[in-house]
């Protein structure tokens, strides 16, 4: 027993009793012959007080104490003369009678405070020290709490948590697999799962009815800021259900989480078609915390000798409320912003709906006040608003207007992190056409069922077929997605065919699934949530890295353990492998 | 909505209402113009009744129905004339008005019944059909329930569930690693974790205080019956604790599980030293459901011109109660059993303590009745008992007697699967000497702390140093193990030194851990339970394979998905790898 209480536990009611605490030295200060030490553990901070005249031996130990030393202290609890209202333990302190240093500490490479002086790289290298900081640890405590709340909810709903294998089989579809050479099966490889998709479908064929798992998944992709080679999914599947059953079940889970974890009541989630999301928000993950919908002004603005508009496929606009007083400088900055390659607009036209009822636009010489009034009406703008127009190819301008909308939302403070607006985006296209490879790809995955009413289009206009697929979007973040699945082996074969698989390839890769469908497969559907994203949303963070205990950097490296790393020659030999570096080819 | 109720739900109280059920056709029989179908889902079986004269259309569908067809049926619930007491739904049946075939089924390759006619291989190939069988599914439902009970318990005790990385770093210590080539870091590899050992220790350094995770671990070992390349651990670690704190916490968890899952109260777990376990049970995982302790008869039996005993280092015996009437044939069979290579005895001596008070042994010509009486007394044998003696090298004879004890326990029915006798085995040796490589290996792992009172022996007699290490053993099965950890970088260096690491190797492999210990590491200790084994113990099964949804066979293959398998040349090229098959060397 290293302690009788934790550093977050003692209150006035403990006054007079002898206690032992253990923890880290947060700080030490000397004042009028007394030394004060703030002792920290996971549960809180307690003030220890040493009377420097009380014991020479104790005083000796005290002199050597530095930040982050691990100590054990015993003494009586007493009321503090100057209370600290910021600490739950702020009414008391320990009058230390005995002190033991359990572990000394070198000076940490950065300060272990809520706001650290350490940069990203050094904090990642010493992640175990970074994790000592309250905000970092709190993110991971939140993660643990959320995982437990999710499991309890799904457990109560009779979902069976089932572990699916990590060593599976490489498939050419989807992202790049991580592979694992097999020693016992020469020249062969396992793959790490990008998701347990086929296994959860097989569990439905097996009659498991309701499956879930919080599970690690793996993708060997070039990493962007918000990607990790290993990430965690809340993976679910249900049998004998239709799309609505899945949406209702997981809307229930999501509401439960908001209530249980954040004590927030969220309203019923609206459903929005993919087509509407793209037209109104320029995004398949619309942030509906604010409106500022995209308006199609193509018909309104064309035909006035302004060739930029006249030649464009599409002219769209958003209306930023109360921004008519934007300065030239602000407007220029916005114009530059939309011209960046990742936004891709050629330029921007603005229309100020001045407070006095007049209009001022960047294209005044082409349009009369009356014409401009029509723009304002089409946008539902009122005096004081600012209308921003982009023109060009329709799909890319919708994207650009979607991005501009978010930028304006940010500038206007419309994206409060403590407001949560979930919605379901539904009716995604089944297939995407890829110009480069001249073939269709599954937008969700090859197991997604087309809408029954669109099946006839599979032969004539596959690009127009809608899927029974859905995404849960919260505050512009795609939190999860899923679909109703194909459960008929012939329709599944036809899908593989459409996706350019030969019969042999389909058989080699997914023969077991199509075979399973021949023995009585129930209708089924499922969903997977990105757990890392969900936690970071709840934590009010922008990156998933902050909710992962030991994340990897953008090169897929764990800089703390220095991995990946070369392996021994005998390991390579046992695996029948030879490394052939690119330089040597 | 494919159903209004499940197949396990309807009772007399539902009589008269119209319901829709969906599920699999378990069986179909015709009787007096009526057709009866047992409809099965995960929740149970409900009898559907079709009046063959009611509807020609319905009757037509009915004729085509085969086993394992997935159907949806609608009709009214009515009381059954002949009730079935074996079914919870046995009081009612559905009078079917409408029937829809959702999925037909080919004839399954084996019967989907509690006792199947399918052999192991075919059931593994069609695992999704095997999982439909009640006993198989129930094992996995048990697993899910146990996981949730474990998490709830640890959650209540303020353990933080923290995910540790799966893509880590290969280390030469321990079993063989599975490795994962990195595409982004040429010629370098990740390894899959054999356990999250160092990460959980780093979480203690980080102040997490109480960590747990139910986590997949990986070992590339040649597979025995009860091993899988991927397996699941309940992995835990605590800071500011001593051995007793860990034992108490996880004894509490284990008792909770027995109570919550099996409604069994188990007594406090005895503690037994490794040395006592080896001497009395010939095993470091003693099955204490029965006594039959090993007795050392070396001093009692030596010196009677029986050279086999006189030349032996050790003569030990067990006393099998009430077996004095074992026949010649039974004794010969036992003798052959102990002479098998895996047991390794040269022969066996027996002593029958006959019911009439006389003795009969296989070495009567060397020993008088008085001498044999001494054996009996030394073994605490009474009239009617059978004493079995083995002689030879001490350590291997203790092993052999331990195995013989279990064999006799089995023959005497002393190993009831519904009796649970957990215990803690403690005070394991810190190190094992390996003759072949002429070096010490860590018995537990290199991070285990020696007992403080034995530290002085590290230099003089390292083989005698005991560790603060412990195993939880239940019914002769090692369920879990753990240890108090080293938290001092110097002692850790010394351990690596003892284990034959050079300074450079230790630094390269574990530098980050020794570095972490320099910044204030708390005393900590932990444990890991084999979750697969724990579930199979609770399920009354001998193999872990039956509690894993998609297990691999002894060659590490998943025969259902046919994995591992070759990968495409472009995948190998991207990974800078070339396969060099053994034959081609």
TrEMBL record, chains A, B:
GO terms for biological process: aspartyl-tRNA aminoacylation. It comes from Sunxiuqinia dokdonensis. Residues 197-200 are annotated as: Aspartate. SUPFAM superfamilies: Class II aaRS and biotin synthetases (SSF55681), GAD domain-like (SSF55261), Nucleic acid-binding proteins (SSF50249). This is Aspartate--tRNA ligase. Catalyzes the attachment of L-aspartate to tRNA(Asp) in a two-step reaction: L-aspartate is first activated by ATP to form Asp-AMP and then transferred to the acceptor end of tRNA(Asp). Transmembrane segments: none annotated. It is found in: Cytoplasm. ATP binds at residues 219-221, 228, 478, 530-533. One of its GO terms (cellular component) is cytoplasm. Pfam families: GAD, tRNA-synt_2, tRNA_anti-codon. Coiled coil: none annotated. The lineage of its organism: Bacteria, Pseudomonadati, Bacteroidota, Bacteroidia, Marinilabiliales. L-aspartate binds at residues 173, 219, 444, 485. Its EC number is 6.1.1.12. Gene3D superfamilies: Bira Bifunctional Protein, Domain 2 (3.30.930.10), GAD-like domain (3.30.1360.30), Nucleic acid-binding proteins (2.40.50.140). Belongs to the class-II aminoacyl-tRNA synthetase family. Type 1 subfamily. Residues 140-551 form the Aminoacyl-transfer RNA synthetases class-II family profile domain. GO terms for molecular function: aspartate-tRNA ligase activity; ATP binding; nucleic acid binding. Its main location: cytoplasm. It catalyses: tRNA(Asp) + L-aspartate + ATP = L-aspartyl-tRNA(Asp) + AMP + diphosphate. It comes from the Bacteria. NCBIfam families: aspS_bact, PRK00476.1. Keywords: Aminoacyl-tRNA synthetase, ATP-binding, Cytoplasm, Ligase, Nucleotide-binding, Protein biosynthesis. The gene is aspS. Homodimer.
């Amino acid at each position: 027993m290293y302690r009788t209480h934790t550093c977050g536990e003692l209150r006035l009611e403990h006054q007079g009793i002898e206690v032992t605490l253990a923890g880290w030295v947060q700080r030490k200060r000397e004042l009028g012959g007394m030394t004060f030490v703030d002792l920290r553990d996971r549960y809180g901070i307690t003030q220890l007080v040493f009377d420097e005249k009380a014991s020479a031996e104790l005083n000796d130990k005290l002199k050597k104490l530095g930040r982050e030393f691990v100590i054990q202290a015993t003494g009586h609890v007493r009321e503090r003369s100057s209370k600290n209202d910021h600490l739950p333990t702020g009414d008391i302190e320990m009058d230390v009678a005995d002190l033991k240093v359990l572990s000394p500490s070198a000076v940490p490479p950065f300060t272990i405070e809520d706001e650290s002086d350490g940069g990203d790289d050094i904090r990642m290298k010493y992640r175990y020290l970074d994790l000592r900081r309250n905000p970092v640890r709190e993110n991971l405590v939140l993660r643990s709490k959320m995982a437990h709340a999710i499991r309890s909810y799904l457990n109560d709903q009779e979902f069976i948590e089932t572990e699916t294998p990590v060593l599976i089989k490489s498939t050419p579809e989807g992202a790049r697999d991580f592979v694992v050479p097999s020693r016992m099966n020469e020249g062969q490889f396992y793959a790490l799962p990008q998701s347990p998709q086929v296994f959860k479908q097989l569990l439905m064929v097996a009659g498991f009815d309701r499956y879930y798992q919080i599970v690690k998944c793996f993708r060997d992709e070039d990493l962007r800021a918000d990607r990790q080679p290993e990430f965690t999914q809340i993976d679910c599947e249900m049998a004998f259900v239709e799309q609505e059953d899945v949406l209702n079940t997981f809307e229930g889970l999501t509401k439960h989480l908001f209530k249980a974890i954040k004590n927030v009541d969220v309203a019923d989630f609206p459903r929005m078609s993919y087509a509407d999301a793209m037209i109104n928000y320029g995004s398949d993950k619309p942030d509906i915390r604010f409106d500022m919908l995209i308006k199609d002004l193509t018909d309104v603005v064309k035909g006035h000798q302004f060739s930029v508009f006249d030649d464009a496929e599409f002219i769209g606009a958003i209306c930023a409320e109360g921004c008519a007083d934007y300065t030239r400088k602000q407007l220029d900055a916005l114009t530059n912003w939309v011209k960046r390659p990742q936004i891709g607009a050629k330029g921007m036209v603005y229309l100020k709906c001045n407070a006095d009822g007049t209009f001022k636009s960047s294209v005044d010489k082409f349009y009369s006040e009356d014409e401009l009034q029509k723009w304002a009406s089409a946008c539902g703008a009122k005096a004081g608003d600012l209308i921003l127009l982009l023109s060009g190819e329709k799909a890319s301008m919708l994207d650009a207007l979607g991005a501009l909308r978010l930028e304006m939302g940010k500038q206007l403070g419309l994206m409060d992190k403590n407001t949560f607006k979930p919605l379901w985006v539904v009716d995604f296209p089944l297939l995407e056409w890829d110009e480069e490879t001249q073939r269709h790809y599954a937008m969700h995955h090859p197991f997604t069922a087309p809408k029954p009413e669109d099946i006839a289009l599979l032969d004539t206009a596959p690009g127009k077929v809608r899927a029974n697929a859905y995404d849960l979007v919260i505050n512009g973040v795609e939190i999860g997605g899923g679909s109703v699945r194909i459960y008929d082996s012939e329709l599944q074969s036809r899908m593989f065919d459409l996706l350019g698989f030969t019969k042999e390839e389909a058989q080699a890769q997914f023969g077991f699934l199509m075979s399973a469908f021949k023995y009585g497969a129930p209708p089924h559907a499922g969903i997977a949530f990105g757990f890392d994203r969900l936690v970071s949303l709840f934590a009010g963070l922008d990156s998933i890295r902050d909710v992962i205990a030991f994340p990897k950097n953008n090169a897929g490296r764990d800089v703390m353990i220095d991995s990946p790393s070369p392996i021994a020659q005998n390991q390579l030999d046992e695996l029948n492998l030879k490394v052939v570096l690119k330089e040597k080819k």
